[in-house]
Amino acid sequence: MPELFNVLPPASALKVLLDHLPVRVRAESVSTAEALDRVLAESLIAPSSLPAFPRSTMDGYAVRAADTFGASESLPAYLSVVGEVPMGRASDVKIEPTQAAVVYTGGVIPPGADAVVMIERTQKLDATNIEVLRAVAPGENVISVGEDVKVGEALLAPGHVLRPQDLGGLMALGMTRVKVATRPRVAIISTGDEVVPPDVEPGPGQVRNVNTYTVAGLVAHAGGLALPQGIVRDSFDALLSVARAGLDAADALVIAAGSSVSTRDLTADVVNHLGKPGVLVHGVSVKPGKPTILGVCQDKPVIGLPGNPVSATVVAGLFLVPVLWRLQGVDEPPDRRRVTAKLTHNIASVPGREDYVQVKVVERDGELWADPVFGKSNLIYTMVKADGLLCVPLDSNGVHEGEWVEVSLF
Amino acid sequence: MPELFNVLPPASALKVLLDHLPVRVRAESVSTAEALDRVLAESLIAPSSLPAFPRSTMDGYAVRAADTFGASESLPAYLSVVGEVPMGRASDVKIEPTQAAVVYTGGVIPPGADAVVMIERTQKLDATNIEVLRAVAPGENVISVGEDVKVGEALLAPGHVLRPQDLGGLMALGMTRVKVATRPRVAIISTGDEVVPPDVEPGPGQVRNVNTYTVAGLVAHAGGLALPQGIVRDSFDALLSVARAGLDAADALVIAAGSSVSTRDLTADVVNHLGKPGVLVHGVSVKPGKPTILGVCQDKPVIGLPGNPVSATVVAGLFLVPVLWRLQGVDEPPDRRRVTAKLTHNIASVPGREDYVQVKVVERDGELWADPVFGKSNLIYTMVKADGLLCVPLDSNGVHEGEWVEVSLF
């Protein structure tokens, strides 16, 4: 338990956690067609050049550019049309001086030709002769071999999150399978004697499970797979047994703790029994979220979230999300959308603590305003009503009404 | 064919298309646990209040606030502890004047009590008596019934895209199923005699299919389901038959056209044969993407994309993406992430046309710069290398080096 019970600033706490995780990224091969939003786990190198043949970018005539030099409407160049290059086939004509061949956009430039004259810049004289009304330079309206990608060129690096156009680009080169990071599986346990499943009518003093579903959503957005482990009573033996099974089945474990002090200590005890080094951080200087537990057991991250829904969501965003990206080989998690807005009310804070404040973003007279959604941190609907979070930094006393703030949108 | 062959500005073209679509949103009931990122298709009203009982936000003692008035370290209030409220159960004690009961965070406030004193603000005298070292106000450290949500309160409106905390909020109220818009199914056809599937080694003059996969990725990001219909030769009968089957099986049809003029006309002919009103817009004043076809057949949107990959991606982003959101009842599609950056090179444009320019976003001396990735629009890897698009507006002559521009990130 090297750093047990140190209350650390969020950035330091995250660093401690990440530094204890293995560097190796688990990877699997998937069909490129199914690889959207997955994280690339290999360096991709072009296996061939693209295009593989010189292509026309216009409908028109493939020509030798030199034959068109000086051509104009008043002094056209005369060329004889010796054939047509059909789409999707090699050319069976060769262009000699003063010859041309019909080509279509995307079609092969026949041997001998080095440019294409747009059809609109020509005039047909008869069945086999045309006038060229404007000169073309060598290479004009032609994509040369390898102009898009050259064989051996580096395409994409490990850690890149695959976008729609990346899939298209890989398919263009016949790379129909790619190695991507496996989705980290996250076992999620909710604890608390008062917690019942959402489909159960709560008895007196009981509440429905919220955190499993909120955390599962954050896991999915970070590329992971949530493995909900149900609700566990506040008992060391019960929690240890479910936690052990969850950790075995998954790549990471989240325990959304009961909210009272005793159950928080229970979580820390359980984490320390799951494997070395156990609890690394117990307490983070963040509001909400101070009673956060960060640990590593059996080389897997284990995160104890505060039980109340807002704290659990903020803390999962601060620690679980970057950990899941790191497990996929991404050091800088994809940024959330941000907007800059003016603050509608003063927010007090305390130096030495990062405060995360839920805000609604509203437009007034053409300006964006960040309107804090105040509420006790136990209220899940403050988060439902909010559009995003603003962070009051560690060293700040607060932010004043009218100041510009940056809001990370949900 | 009411507006056939009018070249329209992108915003007008989109409006024509949307105005011809039915307003009705198709909906289905899904498990709330599976509803992440789905679009809500009903108004949600709280079926009960949250919390359903007054809850403590602290570990401590439930008291009558009046009994603590004036209490301080030097002059504590003396209370007798008459019991403990266990988590997840009703209280079997009632608090009379000068009495207190042990409560835990999230536990029930027993009848008679109206506030909670934190345990840290008390001192134990003996087994049943405590000193209260600080006064509490009525309601302090208590969440009252309905403080989070009141029964009958409007929660979320149709068109809302469900976020992690929304799922948690619904679960808290036992709303384990929700009505969401069905995912629009999008049939995607690639045409062109030169196009072969990605797993085929292209022969001379052949290229692999790119657009099906790029468009499928955009469809997935917009909440839709891509139904790839393969590659169709440049023949009216073949295209009509595959397009008809695709449109029957789907809620929208995309034809990524062959690139030559003749195949574009083919697409328009086919769209006009699929049903009324057929082609609505043929040609949009956008670069790349001028030969775009927008139509509605059998009340379903049909979009003819230009064949080259960059144009196809830009046009799908401009028209297909907002159409798919609209089919799910979302009028303002979720914004892409944007950054503001300085332009590294002059970009020329022509008034009367919107230009979309691919840029890489790079940091130099702490400033963000948008560096145009120039390249013929047929080059798929310009898009792979780019981080986003900047739009040169309809009425602009271009943008100068050093000007601030807004980049929509991919």
Labels describing this entry:
alpha/beta; 28 strands; 31% strand; Molybdopterin biosynthesis moeA protein, domain 3; homodimer; six-stranded mixed β-sheet; Molybdopterin biosynthesis moea protein, domain 2; Molybdenum Cofactor Biosythetic Enzyme, Chain A; 4 domains; 410 residues; 20% helix; 7 helices; elongated
Structural shape of chain A:
elongated
Q: What average pLDDT do the residues of chain A reach?
A: 94
CATH homology superfamily name of the largest domain in chain A: MoaB/Mog-like domain
User: Which range does the strand content of chain A fall in?
Assistant: 25-35%
The percent of residues in helical segments of chain A reads: 10-25%
Structural class of chain A: alpha/beta
Biggest β-sheet description of chain A? 6 strands, mixed
Rounded to the nearest angstrom, the radius of gyration of chain A is: 31 Å
Q: Show the largest interface.
A: A-B, 90 and 90 residues
Regarding quaternary structure, how should these chains be classified? homodimer
Q: Could you please say which CATH topology of the largest domain in chain A applies here?
A: Molybdenum Cofactor Biosythetic Enzyme, Chain A
What's the CATH architecture name of the largest domain in chain A? 3-Layer(aba) Sandwich
Number of domains of chain A: 4
Low-confidence region ranges of chain A: none
Query: Total number of β-strand segments of chain A?
Result: 28
Biggest sheet strand order of chain A reads 7-4-6-5-9-8
The N- and C-terminal alpha carbons of chain A lie at a distance of 34 Å
Q: How many DSSP H or I helices of chain A?
A: 7
CATH level 1 name of the largest domain in chain A: Alpha Beta
